[in-house]
Every structure is written in structure tokens, then in C-alpha cells.
Design goal:
By secondary structure, this protein is an alpha/beta fold. It is 41% helix and 14% strand. A hairpin with an 8-residue loop joins strand 9 and strand 10. The protein is globular, with a radius of gyration of 21 Å. The structure holds 4'-deoxy-4'-aminopyridoxal-5'-phosphate (PMP).
């Protein structure tokens, strides 16, 4: 099998699986319990959290565990909106967000919040002038993903922060960093809130986190028994948290070296695909190499995906969360409906081999040519 859908989810690394097994077997206590088994669990919880915090360059008390980036996005946006109602009701997001952000925005609109969508240029970069123009006195939050999940556009968060804070120092900045962590370096201090998910970095599904700067106040979106002030009540899933901590550590190794290798694989695929007149590569100078989006204009993406699947090759449509629909990101960048309807997303990992890419290209070329002839 050749797996090229790493941006949808990654396989769990064996080291991480070992951690899950060990912690599940050896730490049976609830970390909130007062007895020694509880204390043993709470010590591990603390050391796992300290490790995550130190890798991310933040404080342990700035980490809130969630079930994944969807929940982190919900907590960030709804938690900020409800906490800041008296200050304002205006929120700005980009047109390159994950579908979960738009679903949350729709909900917030139903509560009376006003959402503005900042423009981007033809390379996918946020339009700084438009952003500057949109920030108002009642703007409570700007949410812009660090790396877009469909075309891999990376945004300059530091610059975005400067622009927003200059217009309104009180406006908070959230970034969905799900597709950035473990692929490119990020600085959490560029933002006030950030969403991260373990299953995109060779960790288990069902665990993520929200980074929340300690100066920022948001309200919980879930209520239950919890230790004082916890934004996410309930028993912490210790095996998943320990696994997340290991996954983050492993994911942050040799980022630049891995990126250089992935760039070569990406370029190899582009070179081959450029030969076909009806194939367009949706890539700009801001795309990270790990995510390669291509439109096969004369073939439906699901047909191509299923043809490849029969040969045990797995690629994605735009994002796993909006399969079958058009790529909103390709639309936002190129403003071309046909192009946006015909995308597939090939996502590469440091685990991908040159041999896999060669085999993939041979089979993709064969299958595509067969399907294009039927068109
Ligand atoms: N945000 C982005 C940018 C993503 O790529 C994804 C996963 N497709 C999510 C959020 C949702 O993450 P999770 O599956 O952890 O809820």
C-alpha cells in the first residue's frame, strides 16, 4: 500500500502505541483522585504536560486538552465570543479555514455575532490592507489558520498579529495550527490561542489541545465537575495525553531536513503532472511541500481516488472533512469553480519514500490517462 493522505490523518508511530499501552496498563488511577494511584497518574499528567509545554515554548497552565482540533476550534471561538460579548460581537476569519471554523462561525452568527471574511491575494496570502480595514473597535477575535489544509498555504502569523494589534490591541488572535505542527516551525507567541491535534502528527485520534495565553480569558463550552477553573472538565485521558506528548516530541525532530526531502518528492510529482494539458497544480509560493493539491480537469476526483484505491494507493480529496464538495480554498485562491471541483490532495510525509512516489506516479499516470480517455 502507498499512503499519501497524511494530512487527513497519520498512522500512529509504534513508540507512541507503546506509550499508550504502558500508561493504560500501569496508570489505572484517576489523576483527580487523592489516593496514591491518583497521585501517580497526576504526576505523569504533569510531566507529560510540562514536556508538551516546553516543546511548544509555552507554560503548562496555558494548555487545555481537548478531543482534537475541532473541539479546540470550538473552545477558542465560542469561548472567546461568549467571554467578550460586552466588548464587541465582531469576528474576522480567512477564506482558507478548515470547515470546522465555518461551522462554528455559522453558529456564532445565529447567536448574533457578526463574521467578516478577510480577502486573500492570488497566491493565498492574507490581504493585509483588507485585514487592517476590517479590524474595528468591536472586533474581539481574528482567526487565521497557520497552514491551510487543502493547498498548504502558510500565513505569516507574526505580521498578521502586528497588523491586528496595531488596529485594536484588545483583539485576540487564534490560529488553527493543526496542519502546521510537525511540518513547519511555528511560534505560539504570535497568537493568543492555537489549536493542535495529535492524529496529524503520528499520535492517537481523540486528543488535541488548545493553547491559551495565560493573560487571555475565555469561558468553557462544557460544564462538569473539575478542579478549579479547568476549561475542559472530566477525567483527563492520561494514556492519550502521554502519547500526545511523545508524538509532539517525535514530530519536532529534523523539521527542516524533512521539509527539504519532502520538497524533492513534491517537485518530482509536479514535474510529471505538468506534462498533461488538463492537469493544473494548485500550488503557490506560500504552499508547504507536504500538501500538494492538483486539479485533474477532465476526471472527477472521486473516480480517480477510487481507481487509485484499487491499486492500494490512498490520496485525499480537498480535506477529509469536506469530501465530495468543492475545494473552498482552491476557489478562494483561483476563483475558478471547475478547478475547485476537480481537486485531489496528495499529502506527503517524512515517511514517504522516493520508491513510493515513483510507483505512485506510474500508476497515477496510467489510471489518469485511462479515465481521461473516457471523458
Ligand atoms: N483544522 C484543520 C486545519 C484540519 O486539517 C483538521 C483535520 N482535517 C481539523 C481542524 C480537525 O481536526 P480533528 O480531526 O482533530 O478534529
Amino acid at each position: 500500500m502507498i499512503y499519501l493522505d497524511y494530512s487527513a490523518t497519520t498512522p500512529v508511530s509504534y513508540d507512541v502505541i507503546d506509550t499508550i499501552n504502558k500508561v493504560t496498563k500501569e496508570y489505572i488511577g484517576n489523576s483527580n483522585s487523592l489516593h496514591s494511584l491518583g497521585v501517580k497518574s497526576s504526576e505523569l499528567l504533569k510531566s507529560a504536560t510540562d514536556q508538551i509545554a516546553s516543546i511548544l515554548g509555552v507554560s503548562s497552565n496555558e494548555i487545555v486538552y481537548t478531543s482534537g482540533a475541532t473541539e479546540s476550534n470550538n473552545l477558542a471561538l465560542i469561548g472567546t465570543a461568549l467571554a467578550n460579548r460586552k466588548k464587541g460581537n465582531h469576528i474576522i476569519v480567512s477564506k482558507l479555514e478548515h470547515p470546522s471554523i465555518y461551522a462554528i462561525c455559522n453558529y456564532l452568527e445565529s447567536l448574533g455575532f457578526e463574521i467578516s471574511y478577510v480577502k486573500n491575494d492570488s497566491e493565498g496570502l492574507i490581504d493585509f490592507d483588507d485585514l487592517k480595514r476590517l479590524v474595528r473597535e468591536d472586533t474581539i477575535l481574528v482567526s487565521i489558520c497557520a497552514v491551510n489544509s487543502e493547498v498548504g498555504i502558510r500565513q505569516p502569523l507574526k505580521m498578521i498579529r502586528q497588523i491586528v494589534k496595531k488596529e485594536n490591541f484588545g483583539t485576540l488572535i487564534h490560529s488553527d495550527m493543526t496542519q502546521a505542527i510537525g511540518k513547519v516551525s511555528v511560534n505560539l507567541h504570535d497568537v493568543d490561542l492555537a489549536s493542535i491535534s495529535a492524529h496529524k502528527i503520528y499520535g492517537p485520534k481523540g486528543i488535541g489541545l488548545l493553547y491559551k495565553n495565560s493573560n487571555v480569558n475565555i469561558v468553557p463550552i462544557m460544564y462538569g465537575s473539575s478542579k478549579g477553573g479547568n476549561l475542559r472538565p472530566g477525567t483527563p485521558p492520561l494514556p492519550l495525553i502521554a502519547a500526545f506528548s511523545k508524538a509532539i516530541r517525535l514530530a519536532n525532530v529534523d523539521l527542516e531536513k524533512r521539509e527539504r526531502f519532502i520538497t524533492l518528492l513534491n517537485e518530482k510529482i509536479c514535474e510529471q503532472m505538468k506534462k498533461f494539458p488538463h492537469v493544473v497544480i494548485n500550488k503557490t509560493k506560500y504552499s508547504i511541500p507536504h500538501i500538494l493539491n492538483i486539479s485533474f480537469m477532465d476526471v472527477m476526483p472521486e473516480t480517480l481516488i477510487h481507481a487509485l484505491e484499487k491499486k492500494e494507493i490512498y490520496v485525499g480529496t480537498n480535506t477529509a472533512c469536506s469530501s465530495g464538495e468543492l475545494s473552498t480554498s482552491v476557489m478562494a485562491i483561483y476563483n475558478d469553480l471547475e478547478r475547485a471541483k476537480h481537486t485531489i490532495r496528495i499529502s506527503l510525509s517524512f515517511m514517504t519514500t522516493t520508491d513510493e512516489v515513483n510507483k505512485f506516479l506510474t500508476i497515477l499516470t496510467e489510471e489518469y490517462q485511462k479515465l481521461a480517455k473516457l471523458h
